[in-house]
Structure formats: structure tokens, C-alpha cells
């Protein structure tokens, strides 16, 4: 590690205790800090010399982007008091996550990586994360979404040199979001957020035409309709696009009988009281246990009656 890195690290540590006063009273330190921040981040990630041999193997990466309007409908639908934190630019698809996956499974998840979530590494990219890897769920703890993504997926991804630290992992997600701008890709096939009814094929074909691969498409299902919620692209370990269907992923979870909505705004009716119209209420879902319990009662009655 070079001399300048050592200076920067000691300043950073000092800053943790008394951030504003250190900055204000010593502009020289501030300049050094700004000049060397990227250098510091790079050296942090390169300095790692940790064995990852015990981490589970995986085959490909799934990069999931979400449509914020649908994510918000989902979040508000979970509880009437939930409020959304929308990205600054209302027209962008935002990152959900970058998920290492073993063919035929959903994981691995929550790997026992020696690299733990470190929010300090995100400081240089915090604004981009807020805008493009937005935590829709307002009122949850700051960093909780990113900490969750790191813990569940980043820890397993960290075997890959390009994703070997918290900073690199989140930086890569932002880079892919910029490179594969879904708003533009869809708009080129005339799929734009409006009141139209779309189909799975509309979305899948626009990706196929532009990127020459099949994505995975997720919908949020409601009584009468579905909302496009996520579009996922698959990559091999060299970050080359591959068809998600080529690694056995189902093309979509959307109900083929319902039209798919790609809405521009969150409908007021959903944000407020009359959610009943749109949401399947929990009591409508009769659980297995309840059915078993009913049969148990009937059988008990018959035994009592015949004896
Ligand atoms: C909805 O959120 C409120 C406030 O956070 C909480 O008190 C309530 O228990 C939640 N309701 C459900 C069904 O989770
Ligand atoms: C979308 O489909 C629904 C039901 O299938 C229909 O009632 C509605 O008129 C359609 N909307 C548009 C804009 O085509
Ligand atoms: C990824 O795909 C590209 C293009 O098909 C191929 O050249 C490359 O070898 C693949 N990398 C891995 C690690 O599979």
C-alpha cells in the first residue's frame, strides 16, 4: 500500500468520529481525500488476499431490474401504511440485484464469505445507488436493502474477481443498469409505460430483438391483471449475455390469461383505501391446514355419531 493510501485511511478513520469539523477546519485534508478516494477504493479491493475455496460453486449470474411503479404497488399492497421511496428519475428501471445461480436452483444464497457488508465502501457511489439501485421501501433502515442484497447474493458472488468486494459488486450492478437500459430497449419496440395491455411476448421479443437473448420476466399478479415487475438478464462468468432459458430458467411467472400493465404512475386508487379491488386478501386463500382441520372435524363427528 502506498504512502498516500495510508494517509487517506488515517484521515478516513479520524473522520468517522468527527466528520464535519475535520472537513470544515482542514480543506487540505479534504482535497487529499477527494483526489485519492478512487485510489483508496481500488487498493482496498485489490489488497484482499482471502481464500474463497469453501464457498459454493455456481454457473451464471442473473441480473434483475425492476419497474419502480410496480415495485411500489407491491410494497403499498403489503400494508396500507407502507410508503414508497421512488427514484429521482421516474422513467428508469432500477436494479434489484445481481444473483449468482447454480443451474437448476435458486441459489446459492447467504454464503459464508469472509467479506462482510461495509457501507463505507459505498460512499463514492451512494448517489448512483440511491437513483438506480433505489430502496423502494421507505421507512426501512438506511442501507438495509443493499446489506440484504450483499448478504444473500454478494457473499456468494464474491468468488468472482470482478465482484470480490462490496464496492466492486455494487459498482458492477450500476454499470450493468447503465449498459442495459430497459426503458430504451423497450421503447425501441414501442413498449412504453401507458394504459395499454401488453403480453409476455411483447416484452420478451423486444429484448430478443435488441440483445439476442431471452430474459426472464416477472409479474406482480392481481385479480384482473398483472403488472410487469422485473426483467432479468443472464450472464456467464465472463459477463457475456446468455439466454436465461438456456440455463433452464422459466421464461416468466406471469399469468398468460391476464393482460400485463406497464404503468407510468402509481394509480391513486391503489395507494389509498380501496385496495380490496386489486389485492387478493389473505382470507381468500384457504390454507391446507384449514382444509385438513375441516375434514378432521367431519371425521371426528362421524366417529362420534356411529359409536
Ligand atoms: C402495517 O404497518 C403498521 C405500522 O408499521 C403496523 O403497526 C401493522 O401491524 C402492519 N400491518 C400488517 C398487517 O402487517
Ligand atoms: C385491457 O384488457 C381489459 C380486460 O381484458 C379490457 O377490459 C380493457 O379495455 C383493455 N384495455 C385496453 C387499453 O386495451
Ligand atoms: C461466456 O460466453 C462467451 C460468448 O459465448 C464465451 O466466449 C466465453 O468463453 C464464456 N465464458 C465463460 C466463463 O463461460
TrEMBL record:
Any one Gene Ontology BP term: RNA catabolic process
Residues annotated as transmembrane: none
Catalytic residues (UniProt): 96, 149, 153
InterPro entries: Ribonuclease_T2_eukaryotic (IPR033697), RNase_T2-like (IPR001568), RNase_T2-like_sf (IPR036430), RNase_T2_His_AS_1 (IPR018188), RNase_T2_His_AS_2 (IPR033130)
PROSITE patterns linked to this entry: RNASE_T2_1 (PS00530), RNASE_T2_2 (PS00531)
Keyword Disulfide bond included in the entry's annotation: yes
Keywords: Disulfide bond
Gene3D superfamilies, per the entry: Ribonuclease T2-like
Superkingdom to which the source organism belongs: Eukaryota
Claim: Secreted is one of the keywords in the record: no
Pfam families with a match to the protein in the record: Ribonuclease_T2
Family per record: Belongs to the RNase T2 family.
Name used for this protein in its record: Uncharacterized protein
Organism: Cryptolaemus montrouzieri
Amino acid at each position: 500500500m502506498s504512502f498516500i493510501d495510508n494517509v487517506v485511511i488515517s484521515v478516513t478513520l479520524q473522520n468517522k468520529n468527527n466528520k464535519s469539523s475535520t472537513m470544515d477546519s482542514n480543506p487540505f485534508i479534504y482535497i487529499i481525500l477527494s483526489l485519492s478516494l478512487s485510489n483508496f477504493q481500488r487498493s482496498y479491493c485489490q489488497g484482499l488476499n482471502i481464500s474463497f475455496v469453501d464457498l459454493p460453486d455456481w454457473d451464471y449470474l442473473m441480473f434483475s431490474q425492476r419497474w419502480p411503479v410496480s415495485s411500489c404497488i407491491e410494497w403499498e399492497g403489503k400494508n396500507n401504511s407502507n410508503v414508497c421511496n421512488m427514484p429521482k428519475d421516474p422513467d428508469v428501471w432500477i436494479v434489484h440485484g445481481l444473483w449468482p445461480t447454480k443451474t437448476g436452483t435458486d441459489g446459492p444464497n447467504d454464503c459464508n464469505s469472509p467479506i462482510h457488508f461495509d457501507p463505507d465502501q459505498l460512499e463514492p457511489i451512494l448517489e448512483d445507488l440511491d437513483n438506480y439501485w433505489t430502496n423502494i421501501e421507505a421507512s426501512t433502515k438506511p442501507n438495509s436493502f443493499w446489506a440484504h442484497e450483499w448478504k444473500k447474493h454478494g457473499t456468494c458472488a464474491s468468488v468472482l474477481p470482478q465482484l470480490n468486494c462490496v464496492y466492486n459488486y455494487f459498482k458492477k450492478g450500476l454499470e450493468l443498469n447503465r449498459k442495459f437500459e430497459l426503458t430504451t430497449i423497450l421503447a425501441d419496440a414501442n413498449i412504453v409505460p401507458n394504459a395499454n395491455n401488453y403480453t409476455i411476448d411483447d416484452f420478451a421479443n423486444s429484448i430478443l430483438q435488441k440483445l439476442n437473448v431471452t430474459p426472464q420476466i416477472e409479474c406482480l399478479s392481481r385479480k384482473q391483471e398483472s403488472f410487469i415487475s422485473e426483467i432479468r438478464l443472464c450472464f456467464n462468468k465472463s459477463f457475456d449475455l446468455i439466454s436465461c432459458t438456456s440455463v433452464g430458467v422459466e421464461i416468466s411467472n406471469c399469468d398468460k390469461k391476464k393482460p400485463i400493465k406497464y404503468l407510468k404512475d402509481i394509480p391513486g386508487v391503489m395507494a389509498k383505501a380501496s385496495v380490496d379491488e386489486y389485492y387478493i386478501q389473505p382470507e381468500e386463500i384457504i390454507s391446507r391446514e384449514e382444509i385438513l382441520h375441516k375434514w378432521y372435524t367431519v371425521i371426528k363427528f362421524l366417529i362420534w355419531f356411529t359409536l
